[in-house]
Amino acid sequence: MTPQEMRARIVRYGELQPCKTAFIDAHTPGSDQKENFTIIGGGVSESADQHVHITDTPGFNIGAAGQPPKCRNSLHSHRTAEVFFVLSGRWRFFWGRWGTAGEVVLEEGDIINIPTGIFRGFENIGTDYGMIMAILGGDDAGGGVIWAPQVIEDAQAHGLVLGQNGKLYDTKAGQALPDDVRPMPTLTEAELAAFPEPTAAQVIPRHVARYRDLMGLAGRAPAQVIGAQGVLKDKPGFEVDFLNGAAPAEGQVTSGRNDVLMVMRGHWRLTWAEGTQTLAPGDTCAVPPGLTYTLAPSMSGEAAVFRVRDTDDAAGPTWQG
């Protein structure tokens, strides 16, 4: 693989293109300043304005959300895995029909594997603009987003209507649903009853891993964060490993899988037979299957990388009660 070909598989943090109209709550006060980024795969954006950096999916999607302080992402659910790690800022994740079943606060480097099939939302509770990086299970990211009824109702009051085709229509901008498209219906009470309401005590031990703990676990070899043998035991269609720059010592890697490198801290040197690239915090690199590479910090100081790798497991539910 030439350096030019590898460069096309790297999305730099500074090159990320945001979409401010990605979801149904784009006009709702309190959620109208958020930015959505689609890095690998189409993600679950409902807007035609969403820019996709790398269209091919490796069995999962990679995205990000950027929000100023006090901005929140409204309650929604997914059919497949939704994993976040905090790149910058301080974030509160909350869940349940009304967002009151439980919550957890995540700091930089912390990671959460949110259970499928529950309503969840998140907000930036820090003092500066913050960014969280996302991994969504499946090539099609589970077929989109399921919104809590109040989110759809609030959006309609501010001019946004979601069609059953999964597309947004802005009535304030003169748009209307096509004649053959019905509005997305809200869930019935019977349907809502099927969504679990787990407590924080049920979710946090099985679905949250702290950055400092991962730094201690990743010694001479990467620590598996999500996987059959992971800190968070799950099989969502991908695995997540954590590499500590203090002692990566992994040598050459030829996984035969799609390895996506997501830099948390520090600068890392990616080397393969035909070239070298340096990756910085917030950069995402899609290493193709079968390529032999090494990855090591390029300078002193704290360094950490999350590596996502596809598996043969189905991208199905992760919450088991």
From TrEMBL:
Transmembrane segments: none annotated. Gene3D superfamilies: Jelly Rolls. Residues 69-132 form the Cupin type-2 domain. InterPro entries: Cupin_2, RmlC-like_jellyroll, RmlC_Cupin_sf. It comes from the Bacteria. This is Cupin domain-containing protein. It comes from Pseudooceanicola sediminis.
